[in-house]
Amino acid sequence: MHLVLVNGANQARYLERQEGRPRWYTAQWNDDIHHCFHVLLTGEVEGYYADYREAPAAALGRCLAEGFAYQGERSEYQEGKNRVLR
User: Fold this and answer.
1) Which of 33, 77, 82, 83 has the most neighbouring CB atoms within 10 Å?
2) Domain edges within the chain
3) 40: which residues sit within 8 A by CB, 6+ positions away?
4) Half-sphere exposure (CA, 13 Å, Cβ side) for 76?
């Protein structure tokens, strides 16, 4: 059985391992990757896709290289608030 975490704050700490096994969750859904692909494929940039409007390919590259596009940066969709990692 696998337990997948959905976490808008991109808190990878919930994927912590203990003796090689998941301590809490097995995997984490990555909205950043989904949103990057959605913007690139459809051109839609309204709502929560607004954060990926400027450079979706660069954001996708960051996701693939570092795990997430947003790592504490300002979010247009969230009224300028930082997407805080805890």
Assistant:
1) 83
2) 4-66
3) 56, 57, 60
4) 10
